[in-house]
Specification:
This protein is of the alpha/beta class. Helix 1 packs parallel to helix 2, helix 1 runs parallel beside helix 11 and helix 9 runs parallel beside helix 12. It has 12 helices and 10 strands. Helix 5 links the parallel strand 4 and strand 5. Strands 3-2-1-4-5-6-10-7 form an 8-stranded mixed beta sheet, sandwiched between helices. Helices cover 38% and strands 17% of the residues. Bound molecules: beta-D-ribofuranose and calcium ion. One of its GO terms (molecular function) is purine nucleosidase activity. This is Nucleoside hydrolase. InterPro entries: Inosine/uridine_hydrolase_dom, IUNH, Ribo_hydro-like. It comes from Labrys okinawensis. One of its GO terms (biological process) is purine nucleoside catabolic process.
Length: 310
């Protein structure tokens, strides 16, 4: 199986991404690192363990990482994800321990001790931990197989400001460092996640599984959807973060192209914007593969199959 570290700020869609990864034998989850984002660090660290326990995986190493962005004050998204970050399902408080290691240490040490070129990083939240790991130990950069992340937008505009998507907006300086690190990057921007909508039939397909895990997943999907329906006027809300895991499992579900991506960190108006040279109008180096299209039915099938396995 392909070895991955998931860096996350759960978040209902992060939780679905974790279930997709844990329910897919093609992936080996070496550990989960948490970051402040949708809600503060204590809650994202709790929520990651709630999901592991739900999936029957108390053995997974969960390490708390950065509690705030590199330079900016933390901005959270309780307005989208609820007070706990994981509202919508009624699950017990986790009892599995949080690792005593810092998430950034875990990322650095795992990359330095495992064979070079074998580990894929999957950031699903602000890129603070990934940037800190690269700054702390630059020798990890050539050892990373790939970074596959959810964040940014090309033609779709932002969901936090008119220009910026939440994950990049929260820590634009971290994003800038990550995109400049010379590591192969695949990014799932809003352009693709806004085509992956939680329509009623797709949610019902998961509901039909009829397990404890599917019941929680549907609770999260229904909760998450409520807000986005009002916001986007679409049937169902966008299911962002599992796109990262789905890309690893079934890249044929997606289309995209290699582009130059730069991050705006100066402008008040467009702070956190991902400036994506989709049409190749500059000769700046192509530093990311940017996903643009998705077979949404295939995507939800993949998720349903993984949940059924748990
Ligand atoms: C991203 O922001 C968070 O609210 C979601 O979990 C996702 O990672 C979407 O903009
Ligand atoms: Ca997230």
């Amino acid at each position: 199986p392909r070895s991955i570290i998931i860096d996350t700020d759960p978040g209902q869609d992060d939780a679905l991404a974790l279930l997709l990864a844990l329910g897919s034998p093609e992936l080996e989850v070496l550990g989960i690192t948490t970051v402040a984002g949708n809600v503060p660090l204590a809650l994202t660290s709790r929520n990651a363990r709630v999901v592991c326990e739900l999936a029957g995986r108390r053995d997974i190493t969960v390490c708390a990482g950065a509690d705030r962005p590199l330079l900016r004050p933390l901005v959270t998204a309780e307005h989208v994800h609820g007070k706990t970050g994981l509202d919508g399902a009624d699950l017990p408080e986790p009892t599995m321990p949080l690792s005593p290691r810092h998430g950034v240490d875990f990322i650095v040490e795992t990359l330095m001790t495992r064979p070079s070129g074998t580990i894929t990083l999957c950031p699903l939240g602000p890129l603070t931990n990934i940037a800190l790991a690269l700054l702390r130990e630059p020798r990890i950069a050539p050892r990373i197989k790939e970074i596959v992340l959810m964040g940014g937008g090309c033609f779709e505009g932002g969901n936090m400001t008119p220009a910026a998507e939440f994950n990049i907006f929260v820590d634009p300086h971290a994003a800038k460092a990550v995109f400049a690190a010379g590591v192969p990057i695949t990014m799932a921007p809003l352009d693709v996640t806004h085509k992956a909508l939680t329509t009623r039939p797709r949610v019902d397909r998961i509901r039909k599984i009829g397990s404890k895990v599917s019941e929680a997943a549907v609770g999260w999907l229904d909760f998450f959807e409520r807000f986005d329906v009002q916001k986007y006027g679409s049937e169902g809300g966008p299911l962002h973060d599992p796109c990262v895991i789905a890309w690893l499992l079934e890249p044929g579900l997606f289309t995209g192209r290699s582009c130059n991506v730069e991050i705006e960190t100066e402008s008040q108006l467009t702070q956190g914007m991902t400036v994506i040279d989709w049409w190749g109008v500059t000769d700046r180096p192509k530093n990311a593969f940017v996903l643009g299209g998705i077979d949404a039915e295939g995507y939800f099938d993949l998720i349903a199959r993984a949940i059924a396995r748990l």
